[in-house]
Write a structure and sequence with these properties.
28% strand, alpha/beta, nucleotide-binding, 225 residues, four-stranded antiparallel β-sheet, 10 strands, six-stranded mixed β-sheet, binds adenosine-5'-diphosphate, ABC_transporter_ATP-bind
Length: 225
């Protein structure tokens, strides 16, 4: 089954001088696949993710999640950014529970789900900490847990480890693979770091210079631990 299908997507930003960000982008991602999208800065990677997340409308073309068109933000897509975008006045648990509160999930169930994802990202013992009391890697763990707690069909990650130091980044990459293996989520991960893409992905999709288009998808056959 295809979780993500992108057909002939075009995006032009209407400025005084229009900016063509995407041109004829086609992409299919199967359920459970880990795809990395690589390409130079400014080629349109973030634009593509925002369109898949329903945050932005394409000028032309279609985006389907499990066969259904995406027209606005939905809980089916979970987006993780480089900036952690945590709520500073909420604890780790309260941050992770945020989406569940919005969906009116009963308190007891919320607590249970928050506990499960706190454990999944290895933050036991830090439940009552506020974001400013956490390291960068830990903040990104909270951000990932908060997104997964909403049980999205696809996880969209935009340079999530770009702000971390090399050692923490390596550790987070390993953790993300474990999380992926446990949750079997479909992941589309944007990076301009080829090493990172090779380490993480089943498939690497290459986007060329703006207006971004997809020229090639490479299947990686790496042994996994
Ligand atoms: P990055 O290369 O890290 O993706 P950018 O500088 O391209 O960062 O974009 C940062 C934010 O600014 C994005 O959310 C994008 O929507 C917005 N942005 C980028 N370019 C323009 C532009 N020419 N006009 C208005 N907003 C822009
Ligand atoms: P990437 O994520 O690959 O760095 P982006 O999707 O951020 O690329 O940007 C692609 C192109 O579209 C860039 O030229 C950028 O300046 C432009 N752009 C991005 N967001 C906006 C926006 N909100 N308004 C106008 N132009 C934008």
């Amino acid at each position: 089954q295809n979780d993500i299908e992108i057909k002939n997507l075009n995006k032009t930003y209407n400025q005084k001088k229009p900016i063509k960000a995407l041109q004829n982008v086609n992409l299919t991602i199967k359920q459970g696949e880990f795809t990395c999208l690589v390409g130079p800065s400014g080629c349109g990677k973030s634009t593509l993710l925002r369109i898949i997340a329903g945050l932005e409308q394409p000028t032309k073309g279609k985006t389907l999640i499990q066969g259904k068109p995406i027209k606005k933000p939905t809980p089916k897509t979970g987006l993780v950014f480089q900036e952690y975008t945590l709520f500073p006045w909420r604890t780790v648990t309260q941050n992770i529970e945020f989406g569940l509160e919005i969906q009116n999930t009963p308190k007891k169930q919320r607590k249970k789900i928050a506990k499960q994802y706190t454990k999944l990202v290895g933050l036991q013992g830090f439940e009552d900490n506020y974001p400013h009391q956490l390291s960068g890697g830990m903040k990104q763990r909270v951000s990932i847990a908060r997104t997964l707690a909403n049980n999205p069909t696809v996880l969209l990650m935009d340079e999530p480890f770009g702000a971390l130091d090399a050692q923490t980044r390596n550790q987070m990459q390993k953790e993300l693979l474990k999380i992926w293996q446990k949750t079997k989520k479909t992941i589309l991960f944007v990076t301009h770091n080829v090493d990172e893409a090779v380490y993480l992905a089943d498939k690497i999709t290459i986007m060329t210079q703006r207006p971004g288009t997809i020229k090639n998808t490479i299947k990686i056959n790496l042994p996994r631990e």
